[in-house]
Amino acid sequence: MKIVFDCRYTRVGRHDGISRYTAGLVTALAELHPVTMLISDERQLELLPDLPWQLASSPTSPLELFVARQVNRLKPDVVFTPMQTMGTFGRKYPLALTVHDLIYYSNPTPPREFAWPLRALWRLYHLAWWPQRLLLNRADAVVTVSHTTEALVAEHHLTSKPVVVVSNAADVLDAESLPTGASGGPVARSSAKSLVYMGSFMPYKNVETLVRALPLLEGYELHLMSSVRDDDRARLQALAPDARLIFHDGASDAEYLAALDHATALVTASLEEGFGIPLVESMGRGTPVVVSDIAVFREIGADAGLYFEAKNPAALAAAVRRLEDPQEWLSRSLASRRQAKKFSWAASATALLALLEGLAGSPARR
After folding, report:
1. How far apart are CA 289 and CA 306, in angstroms?
2. What is the pLDDT of residue 104?
3. Which of 244, 207, 252 lies closest to 222, judged by CA?
4. What distance separates the 2 farthest-apart alpha carbons in the chain?
């Protein structure tokens, strides 16, 4: 069985969410079965495993409508793409595509890095459900990254095709580097008074609630790890001029893990998400998570997490203060490590391979 894995959404230089999903999943899948990667820029190979690869046009190129003709030449038995927009005209192979979330139907602001023509098309696309249905029903199966997104796909009747959850996960964390006490257990950081946020500053991320909660938490500092625009930095600082906001403006992985390892908690107040990789990363380090009470965070954090109403800074502050009790912090830390083990690229790759094997034995839609 020849599997072609669409890796053209891999970023150059540094991962974003979909890029990290691509790299993590293709690496684990290749340990189970031979894979050929499809890329659009040889620089993408820096963030991908050492596997066979083929070049194709960019997924943002006008040629995307007919990219299946390029893929046909590879004679695949099945193709997987980590997005839902891969062109299908003329394809001669079974295809599984991916829906990460439906955030932009209720939060229509497009990613800021997009050029204005693409931003305009983005907004038009999310004005109605039928374009999504059209895309999904041109494939043979649909992958989602969480049961929450799977339920939303069903609720909005977005596809008649089989839907399979191939969960997001966190990159492998070195267990030997986890902070521990003399007994080998986690070290309580209930008095650290350090909070970590990892994510963008898009409106649906609701970072404003995190900032507004900080004046209610005497002595605490908030580490914002991602790259930040000057206008976002100024806007957030103006919300709480005396708050201790530490902008890392794009921390390295090592800096990020070090911040987690010294933090009381990871915090996020997102209004919607398709998954939440930072939660798994934090829990895997034994750092509790204090997060907005949305369905997907309940799915990921389960009983290990602490939850608050998304736009209520006082509720967020109250949840953080619960972790000032050393026993509460330790209990949440141990529960977090157990919960994080439920999400792995190996398990996700196993689920994906089962789907692809089934599709490879079925006739492709034309």
Report:
1. 6
2. 75
3. 244
4. 63
Asked whether the beta carbons of 293 and 308 are under 8 A apart, the reply is yes
Confidence label for 79 from pLDDT (cuts 50, 70 and 90): very high
Give the least confident one: 107-121, 255-269, 277-291.
107-121
Cβ atoms of 288 and 302 closer than 8 Å: no
> Is the pLDDT score of 219 beyond 70?
yes
Q: Is the pLDDT of residue 156 over 60?
A: yes
As a whole number, the mean pLDDT across the chain is: 90
Nearest to 159 by CA among 91, 98, 88, 78: 98
CA distances from 236 to 108, 112, 198, 204 (A): 21, 18, 15, 15
294 vs 307: CA distance, rounded Å: 8
- The single residue listed with the structure tokens 């909005």 is 156
* Burial class of residue 361 (count of CB atoms within 10 Å of its CB; 0-12, 13-18, 19+): exposed
The structure tokens 């072609």 sit at 4
Task: Output the CA angle 43-47-52, nearest 5 degrees.
Answer: 75
Q: What is the DSSP string of 229-247?
A: -HHHHHHHHHHSTTSEEEE
Helices (H), 126-252: 130-136, 147-155, 207-213, 230-239
Residue (of 281, 351, 360) closest to 29 by Cα position: 351
> Could you give the dihedral angle defined by the CA atoms of residues 307, 312, 315 and 316, in that order, rounded to the nearest 10 degrees?
60
| Separation CA 56–CA 6 (nearest Å) | 10
